[in-house]
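Researcher: Please predict.
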Amino acid sequence: MSDQEFNSDLQASHRATLHMLCGKIAAGKSTLTAELGRMPSTVVISEDFWLSRLFGPEMKDVADYIRCSRRLREAVGPHVQDLLRLGVSVVLDFPANTVAMRAWMRTLFEAAGADHRLHFLDVPDEVCKARLRARNAAGTHDFAASDAEFEQISSYFVPPSETEGFNVILRSA
């Protein structure tokens, strides 16, 4: 194997990875994000962190969240692509909970020529709601959601399908 072939092989085996998270509110996405973020050459970009700091007072309902989240995606998308192109893996702690959101995420890793993993946290609603209530009581998360908001937001949830073609890692409760 030539030096050029070796370096090419080495680069291919160390390509940056976009880690995406799919799961309902309080399914454990933030916990998994922290775990993944400890990997070498990996940065975490958290939607909740940035939304709360940039738009916190503006976000009073789900419609506000959708509007602000769209603005944030427009800002961070090129940054995520740049990080991936530089060889830095990214844990994108944005909910990959709809086909449209996952399609946007696909544009990021494809444009950057990066690998990807879609971590699907398949957790029953009752478990998520219990975790959500505990999290709300503890005040340890950037956003608190009521049971009604959980139901409203969860109504948009679409589990990933094989036809979407993602490298899915299934994680059950």
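Model: Strands lie at 17-22, 42-46, 89-95, 115-122, 168-172.
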